Amino acid sequence: MSTSQRRLSIAAASGVGLLFLSACTTGPGTSPAPTSTSASSEQRIEDARPDLPEGRVIGVGTVLDVGGDVQLCMGAIMESSPPQCDGVPVDGWSWDDVEGRESSGETTWGAYAVYATYDGERLTNTDPPIMLALFDPIAPEDPTDGVDGTTPPGELSRIQDDISARLGDEAVTLRTDRGYVWLDVVWDDGTIQDMADAEYGEGVVIVSSALREID
């Protein structure tokens, strides 16, 4: 299982993207994945431009502050001391009255649920964060309804490698499991899922949004 990191990351990606199935589809994984993309240039996954959230979003992960440059890491973290990642920049962050943090040199970090607005590049903190140890999120629904996919493992690996090469660090995490390629991105309103369906077939790639809109 391989993992791609976006310019952000943590291991607590939240919110599962919606899987859009056509009316003729009876369940996930029923459409075979194409051996090469037949999508037009306007439908390619790397060119997807989801509409931005209108209100606040919530993201869970590690807040990493290096000399005043704050980011939220929603994918993998380098287990160094102090930790390192390449996350989504966070504006308006303050450590005042925030518990659960650690510091080493000019680096301060901690695991939190962060409330913010998102402009497509940066988060702006809007509310006091909640330590993940005290956070009780609503479990996301399984877009596969518990049904395993039917795409052959070799084709899943090919698709995973193709997405990794084309999205690079735009993918928060990328893995294969239960007959699907699972792609976590910072934000999706369904647009990236639609393009993945157009390129690879419905029920092959499942897109999840790490940020979840809350109002």
Strand order of the largest sheet: 1-2-3-6-5
State the order of secondary-structure elements, H for helix, E for strand.
Answer: EEEEEEEHEEHEE
Summarize the amount of helix as a percent range. 10-25%
Number of strands: 11
Coarse morphology: globular
Number of contiguous helices: 2
Distance between the termini: 35 Å
Summed over residues and divided by their number, the pLDDT gives a mean of 83
pLDDT under 50 segments (min length 5)?
Answer: 1-38
In percent terms, what proportion of residues is strand?
25-35%
Rg computed from alpha carbons, rounded to a whole number of angstroms? 18 Å
How would a crystallographer describe the biggest sheet? 5 strands, mixed, barrel
The helix-and-strand class reads alpha+beta
Report on this model:
The strands form two sheets. The protein has a five-stranded mixed beta barrel with strand order 1-2-3-6-5. A three-stranded mixed beta sheet has the order 8-9-10. The chain has 215 residues and is α+β, with helices and mostly antiparallel strands. It contains two helices and eleven strands. The chain has helices at residues 153-167, 191-200; strands at 57-66, 69-73, 88-91, 102-104, 107-118, 123-125, 130-131, 171-177, 180-185, 205-209, 212-213.
Task: Summarize it.
This protein has 215 residues and is α+β, with helices and mostly antiparallel strands. Helices cover 12% and strands 27% of the residues. It has 2 helices and 11 strands; from the N terminus they run E-E-E-E-E-E-E-H-E-E-H-E-E.
Which structural traits does this protein have?
5-stranded mixed β-barrel; 215 residues; globular; 27% strand; alpha+beta; 11 strands; 2 helices
